[in-house]
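[audit] Reproducing an earlier prediction to check determinism. Same input, same settings, fresh worker. If the tokens differ from the archived copy the diff job will pick it up downstream; this log only records the rerun itself.
[audit] input (432 residues):
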Amino acid sequence: MSAPILPSDAAAEPAVTLYVRTQRIEEEVDLLGHVPAAVSGAWLRHGQGVVALGTAWSVQTAGPHRFAAASAAFRQVAARSRIDDEVRVRTSGLIALGSFSYADTSERPSSLRVPRALLGVHDGESFLTVVGVDEEPVLPTSWRDLFPSSPVPDPLSVPLEVEAAHTPDEYQALVQEAVSEIRAGRAEKVVLSERTTVRTPAPLSPAVMLTRLARAYPSTWVYHLEDIVGASPEMLAQTENGRVFSRVLAGSRPVADDGELDEVDRRAFRADAKELSEHAFAVDSVVERLEGLAEEIEVSPEPFVLRLPGLEHLASDVTARLREGTTSLDVASRLHPSAAVSGTPRERADEIIARLEPHDRGGYASPVGWMDADGDGQWAIALRMAHLVDDRTVVLQAGGGLVAASDPVSEHAEALAKCRPMLRALRGEQSE
């Protein structure tokens, strides 16, 4: 059952009671081999996570209080739900998958959705969750009845139509304009992004894109909900047992042919003053915004290099003890948008972004993930992503952080490199 769009702190109507039943599956399940063609949502990493079918309950929100409104609506339905969970692991029982929009003024609704059915794997446990609305759910004879083998089409034989929103010169001029704003003292860091429209010769399959992304980039959080699909390397807020974890990425180096930097270049990358400056802004923004929600905040002693095919990042991990009653969505709301996707100071950076990026960011660079009935969950930043426009059209979006020392040509190359995972998933190519 779907609810209307809520502007701020209203409650979802009509009230329903969800009957949630999770059963253990006594055999080992290859989750990536059972992403259904009609998949309605997914959260995957290292072969674990969940894939979803249908919607038992949902809420859509908008405006500056969209996080709080969605969280309140879910807490209300969770309080009424009747949950029978024989597995009791992460993502079993009642969970809602969520996707939020970047800006307070976005025309794209933010949403939380409780699926009708979930196939999950966590730490060696395989399980099936089914949800009934105002009645006990009907269990299938076999979990395979709901989640048969994943569709596996051949790679495309016809080229994709790829059209960037700007020519290289135009985008590099926008980068230069943002850098000029920074050098003039109007901001310290600005994250600018580029949109690329891709049209395919055959209908798109989110199930196929998910499977390809999850197999090619297993260390990322691969996600799908509503109109977005992608493979994010950046965890905004992960909470469990009163602790929060956030992985901050800022500072990147593209590498040709899906290779890795050699040790000399990697040492230079880790010591690069421009990259370290950009990274420090992002880490500081997370630490500052955790204050008031968390205590005993700890940060990696120095940035480490996160290696992905064709791209390496400076990364830092932030952990802390949450104050009682704080949910994962509370943390995600407080941290969004971090300096890794907006800039510093946030308000000035967003003003510059709004002026230089004429399109609503929609679900790009915003929280995507899940939350359970206790408020724990995982919220990644929707990066390496595509908006699904229709069955043959997607819009990719990617960018990078700019500081006073940024070079427009290098920044353009970084934005192109960050589109590569989605383009490969669309074509059916394997990363090398």
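[audit] rerun output stored. Observation attached for the diff report: The two ends are 43 Å apart (CA to CA).
[audit] end
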